[in-house]
Amino acid sequence: MFIQDFTGEYQRYFTYGTKAIAQISEEALNHVPVAGANSIAMIVRHVSGNLKSRFTEFLTSDGEKDWRNRDDEFADGSWTRADVDRAWAAGFEVVNRELGKLTDGDLTKTVTIRGVSFTVHEALCRSIAHTASHTGQIVLLAKIAAGADWQTLSIPKNGSAAYNQNPVKEKAHRR
After folding, report:
1. What is the pLDDT of residue 171?
2. What is the DSSP string of 75-122?
3. Do residues 91 and 134 lie in contact, with contact meaning Cβ atoms separated by under 8 Å?
4. Phi, psi dihedrals of residue 117, rounded to the nearest 5°
5. Does residue 168 sit in helix, strand or coil?
6. pTM of the model
7. What is the pLDDT of residues 88-118, one digit of tens each?
8. What is the three-class DSSP state of 71?
């Protein structure tokens, strides 16, 4: 039950990011808004690298893999839409595969990230927060780039009353 909650949250952020990225041009994917900031492509590379590193051999090896080069995830450069889409999907594919192997009983097991011990539950909470934060950055940058053409991913402004009559984006209540 609890592992399914984490799986659902990762899917939600994957979907938000995917829908935001789809609304903008390839040029906008690589746009760095101010010096020292990150483009959407950089953020995607970072999230993907983080998820692949953290979840590869999740229960048996440190979450910061030797093969990961975090600094390269933020390197200047231009990525195609296909590159961005592929990277975004690849990180979440590893998460889905590895979470599919876990049971709720695994939540109290210990994993390490950079040599620091966390329960699986703590590591998943930390990872969800990290993924949500960066997905929010992607959505904001995409919304700015799309401008008036932006299609909201959630409840539109001044649409709360109508939405509350039929909250279709909410999870079904468990009994």
Report:
1. 62
2. ------HHHHHHHHHHHHHHHHHHHTT--GGGGGSEEEETTEEEEHHH
3. no
4. -85, 140
5. coil
6. 0.93
7. 999 999 999 999 999 999 999 999 999 999 9
8. helix
Q: For residue 28, give the nearest of 71, 78, 73 by alpha carbon.
A: 78
Give me 72's structure tokens. 């390269």
Q: How confident is the model at residue 166 (pLDDT cuts 50, 70, 90)?
A: confident
Give the separation between CA 127 and CA 55, rounded to whole angstroms.
10
Structural contact between residues 62 and 101, judged by C-beta atoms closer than 8 angstroms: no
- Residue 69 CA to residue 122 CA, distance in Å, equals 24
Give which of 39, 10, 48, 13 is closest to 141, Cα–Cα: 39
Q: Give the N- to C-terminal CA distance of the chain in Å, as an integer.
A: 12
Whether the CB-CB separation of 38 and 136 falls below 8 Å is answered with: no
